[in-house]
Amino acid sequence: MKSRLTFFFATLLTAMALAYCKGPAKLSYRNISNFYKPDLQLAGLSYALFNLNDSITNLYVRIPMKGLRYLPDNGAGKSRFRLSYQLFDGFEKGVLIDSASFTGMDSLTGRAIFMDSVPIRALAGNDYVLSIELLDLNAGNNYGAFLSLQKRQIYNVHDFLLLDESGIPLMRNFLYRNEKVRIRSNRLSDSLHFKYFTEKYLPGTPPFGFPDNIAINAADSVFGVKFRDGVTSSGTVPGEGRYLLYGGGSPVMVIHRFYDGFPDIGSTGQMRESLRYISTDAEYREMSQLPPRAAIDEFWIKLTGHSERALSQIRRYYGRVEEANRFFSLSREGWKSDRGMIYMVFGPPNLVYRNTLSEQWTYGEAGNPLSLRFLFNLETLPDNQSEYFLIRSETYRTPWHMAVSNWRR
Q1: Which of 152, 183, 201 is the last residue of a domain?
Q2: What are the TM regions of this chain, as residue ranges (predicted)?
Q3: 307-348 tens-digit pLDDT
Q4: pTM
């Protein structure tokens, strides 16, 4: 893929560790709380994976150059950055399979997007974890991410790649109205099928309540898709909902159509719905009887008692909604997930540790018995998607009500 920038990947700084060797630290020991802090993330930075064959996986990277720092250099502004990756056999063992590091430079104005791909040696028959870091060498800012790479099954999610109409990786799994896309496959001529589900998930229940049961609903419709030379023809998805691509009898890829504008707030109706976490049952029922705009204005002004204070809280709260959508959208809109719920009410956690099956958040200091901790288990849903679900406890009732009351001042 050719970049539109005057850009180059330069010297390979770190040799590929093809022989099995120990990495610098197990991934499960790394505090990844910065992943969930908007001011420490590069907006628009995104990645995608595609298994070219049984031994090579392409890592696609999209870098918004305007987010990097440009410094004077011979009369022109230049950005300098380094992209590094480490491929591990999992979170716990810490066995490093492959690693490399590349430097890049751009001499344009910083308003363009850089996109390219990097081949990674990853053999079929195993699943991996990819640790990626982008370092802005001019600013000293480091942006990290963990990606799960699946190559264990006959059909894996990374055997398929969502493309825009021109064939460029879309770098997301949700679409907008009338957006034309293609699907790339490493199987050149398979005929697969989609199942379409229109039902929408409800917001999560409070952390001291009972979790919602995951219902197994029948598909609203089923339609086939044909790959020719490894790619489908371009097309759109007809309505909001979930589209599950089936291969070998199981879902292998999911495409969402949440609403136009996602992950940003798309309408006043969604603004009203997302107030579920900080409103009482009576307030929420009352809001549902009013037009969305009137319900939102009345709720915030009644809570704060002042229009300027209300505006400040509105910006803060709905900023959290949009951040939750960007950070936590897996099987549903991020703000409706358990992680999104805790993030919206309590804010970014101080400590985050992830392993193969769970993610632990801490608000406070490590080892402090007064710190608040949440454990989210990664579970497989009936449609073969995965989602993090909170281990609920009655001990969360008091801190939850205290945090909600802070929003209601």
Answers
A1: 152
A2: none
A3: 788 888 899 999 999 999 999 999 999 999 999 999 999 999
A4: 0.91
